[in-house]
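A common beginner's mistake is to predict each chain separately and then try to dock the pieces by hand. The better habit, illustrated here, is to supply every component at once so that their relative placement is modeled jointly.
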Amino acid sequence: MKTNGVLVLGLTGILFLLSVAFLHSDSFQSNVTGEIVRHKRSSGVAASNESQHQTNASQSSNHNESNSSHGSSTPVHRYQVVTINWARVANPFIISIWIIFAGITKIAFHLIQKYVSRVPESCILICLGLVVGGIAYSIDKDHRIEQLLFNPDTFFLFILPPIVMEAGYFMPKESFFDNLGTILTYAIIGTIFNALCIGSSLFAVYKWGLMPGLEEYGSLEFLHCLLFGSIISAVDPVAVISVFEEIHVNTVLYICVFGESLLNDGVAVVLYKMFEGYIEIGQENIIGIDIIAAIASFFVVAFGGLFIGILFGYAGSFITKYTVHNRIVEPTFVFVVCYIAYLTAEIFHLSGIISIVFAAFTMSTYVEHNISTKSHTTVKYGMKMLANIAETIIFMLLGIAAVSDFWQYWNTGFVLWTLFFITLYRAIGVVGLTFVINYIRLDKINRVDQFVMAYGGLRGAIAFSLVSLTQPEHVPTIKTMICSCIVAILFTSFVQGSTIRPIVELLHVKTSAKHKKSMFEDVNLRMIDHVMTGVEDIIGHHGHHYWMQRLQKFNTEYLMRWFVRDPYLSRDHELLDTFHRINKRDAEDLVEEFERGNSSNEIASGTFANLLLPYEMRRSHSHASFNHLVRQQGVTNTCIDMHALEAQGRANGAGRTLEDADVHHLLQQNLYKPRAREVTRYRRGNIEDDGTRKRQEEEILIRRKINVRHRRHHKHKHNRHKTRSSSKSQMSGGSIKKHSTGSCSESTRLLQAPNFVVEQQQEMKTAPPEEDQGITFTAGKKPVQPRNGCSTARNPLGFMSSFDVLPEETLTDVAAEGVEETDTTRVDIESCAIDRELPWKRNPSNNDVVSDPHNTTSYEEPAPEISPESCSNLENVWPSNTNNNSSHPEDGGLHFILDKWESLEEDQI
Amino acid sequence: MGSKASLHLREEEIEAIQQETGFQSNQIIRLFSRFTCLDKEQNGFLTRDDFMRIPELAINPLADRIVDAFFNGGEEHVNFRQFMRTLANFRPSSAKTAEDSPNSRTNKLKFVFSLYDYDSDGMISKKELLQILKLLVGANINQDQLSHIAERTLLESDTNNDRHISFEEFKTVMARTEIDTKMSVRFLD
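With all components supplied together, the output reads:
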């Protein structure tokens, strides 16, 4: 390990020297070119051959030689075997070298991490930058290199966007919205407070004569101090991200510091521009209108950025809605649309950071549903990669830029006072604002968290870029300010950045729950969410949750349908994908076990694969081993073997964790969403839409009804149930009468119940009742529109249809609950196509209806004949029920489903 | 609402509730007005129907269980005292909160545990777990999978291999979760 580290470091060193050499030559070249251009401009003689700028190989080996050769270039050129054209590729080449350099330094740090684990990466990168900068400074007397390397334009246009884009895209939405008020308070009020206080304090100290020697560099006015204060007050997102990612503090703390650092850009930019403008106007010429204009510009800058960001976010989402045939362009849209949002905001001098953060934020909500899994991965890794590289480059460039000639304007007083004030006012700001915020917050931000929040107020490259942008004509003491800014950055990065981790450990700051949640915990948390929603409903107080819900409703009812391709499809698609993945992995596991030859029936019967076997078969019939296995065992063994599971778990720890993850995923997908909190809970595939919500509510209601019925049945058994069910039956208004078999009276009564029940029945009756209830709804909610062919895997119903490609004996084997089940399964296969077209046409229990299994498409549906004795209000909604009255009265329609439901609930009570 | 004299809250009642639950008096008054609002028949107690009449609650998958928590011991009615006693579980807690006060971490956890523990034997069996899962999970997961999930969940939490989850085991599972924050509601003053 150690040698590896040394090797990589050596490699890094070589690369570094190489890059310095290239840099040098480049700066030299540009120097020469510049001279040539000047020469050309003045005399206009013989510059054409220079612009081509070809030197031969021998000359290029030594720059000095090359220099001399340029000076005395001969008019006649012989033909060259090898020519070198460095100037043409110089810039991209250097950039590439830098990126590789940055990447290798990252590798090197991880290899030597045990020695420097206490020091954050950003510090090491800055150090490295300082070294590179030092060497470059000593080589290059004209200081072109640092202008080439760290120029605010490059920084703002190319290096910063990827970082904030990544931050916005992967912003934890839930905690962001939960803490929005706190974040905004810190970002807006906190930053303004800091800027004004730092500025005025510095000026006061200056006036008191506590900064001796500053007058030599120029006059310092009040506005200059305020300008500097606004630059230095903003916490830097890049620095915060890099440091807080390494220490895993709790979510609230993280999102507060992180969100503040992202959103305070709007404020910082406004303040900067405002004071810059005031300086141009001149302190004595400022009138009231300027101040009003500045306040107005704050809203324009912040909300303008927000608006542009969201606009582009929606535009991007809308585009990705139609990329289904061009999957490859999907990631491009995500990246470029975000970037354009940033650039657009910059055009209008709005907050580019806010714009790109919200563009990415908006996009991640919708785009995730539209793009393919592969594109999703691409976007994810692309973002991370770009951000990481940009971050590395920023810190190195910061180090490089720190070595420059502005140090001769050093003023100890100014620098020290700056350090003192930024620390002081950060602390005061955080403590003061938290004091106010804590009155409103439910979970109070405690002292320790406040301390970490104040201590984590790192300054970074944005401040440096802004201060470098400031013109010396406006602020004569700007060089001193640059010094001070650099010192503040270095101080916060090095001292605070590297001590924050020990301090977090020392103070026992609640760290984030980075542990993988166990399944039980997951279930519990979801349960608690529901309970809390319920309790809020009971006490009738809607605050934060209420508005979130309104937003959510708006989103699902109006926005989703515009920006998401097909919420229904993608949901089921996702679900099936999960099934598929579980199955695939289990299949692999099984195959492995078979190959190892230690497979016992016991183990095999306990695996998840067996449970899901039917699905696997529906999806793919190529797994011969599965069929074999099934035949071996006769039926799918649905009971879980504890020992087998445990054995499996022990034998294959990694496999089990993976499986856990999938089960998690499955739960995540299918747990009912609590009403209020869900807005923040978007995840890929976790689509909430009008229909889903409605369905969920209906499901719950119908379950409750059945439950009530059930309780009445059992009231003679359990005393406890008695009281309950009586009250329940009151509640349901007596609409549900006694359970009676063999008639449709039950369903009739239910139909008289409120509307939603009817709707629900309509949905339910389309379902194949012999399936588990899980599939019931999945299938049932498919719209009635006809579709040709049921072979596509994307189709939520498709999996059923692929049954018929299976050998029939397998089917018989698959059927779990005996012959009858097998029959119905087969019916289901044949009729699924019809079912999709006209859901009520299918008679689940009447096998005679489906006469020819191979003629599904041309199958003619018999007109629903309504028996005269059937209730009239059932005619439209439930023909099948009346249809099969004669054959299997209790199996058809609602009755069957109710029975089914009841039997499901049976073991529940 | 609350025009009848019997429905007015007496000072000593407020004080007693304050003592018992830790609510502030204006919170109690506010909640009392909510209580009378829910009490459609104006008879001074709430029935299950009263709860279920709240439209948002009716669509809560756990509504039955939540309402059950208010009716301890299978009673038919819940009066304001009992109502407040249950709600006291959801008061925000702090480090200073006494262990035996209703809003302590343990009691919050106990509340959740009792939602699982349908037969109140102090243990969560697989059956009880499965019931909750069924309530929580949409109809998209079939029985077998759900059963499998329940099995797995039980397995990972059951440390003493008795096929049941005791409260201690439950506590261990939830040890790293911020129950205090999650299970707190801001009661308006």
